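Pilot study result, target chain (205 residues):
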Amino acid sequence: CRSCLVKYLEENNTCPTCRIVIHQSHPLQYIGHDRTMQDIVYKLVPGLQEAEMKKQREFYHKLGMEVPGDIKGETCSTKQHLDSHRNGETKPDENSNKETSEEKQEEDNDYHRSDEQVSICLECNSSKLRGLKRKWIRCSAQATVLHLKKFIAKKLNLSSFNELDILCNEEILGKDHTLKFVVVTRWRFKKAPLLLHYRPKMDLL
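Predicted structure:
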């Protein structure tokens, strides 16, 4: 479970099962619930989801804690869904479909505007590249350095975003770092905007 993983990763940076290094310094940034994979496993193994939900409910009862709502209701909704398919009732509920489509449309139209936002200034520190016409941008804190590389490459008509390095305080940033992570670790207690520099990639031998 997640709590066990978090405790383990406080002192280790490898996978507890296969011992592969997750990340040298920030392994907790790279763990997450893979719902797609979980759904596939549940569909492939008959009765697994019901058994998992039962175990989770028993676990909470044993600790004397209230069972979370999603665990209470997940089995019932899944069972109804499976029973309807077994009985040949494949016609979806019109109201639920309508609500789902409206929610999906609302999410699609949001474009991460409801996320925490980060103000950035992108400066060029190389004579080999030109500066951006609009160097001030505001985007989601969940965006990564890789997103910024692709953005800059698009604006400068570069053949590949891999030709760029992005730096903060003269330190090259990893492509998987989120902007939130960069702000917390490299720009703490400093005023906005977050100042980042870009330059052609340097191969350090």
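One observation from the pilot: The radius of gyration is 23 Å. A full batch analysis is planned for the follow-on phase.
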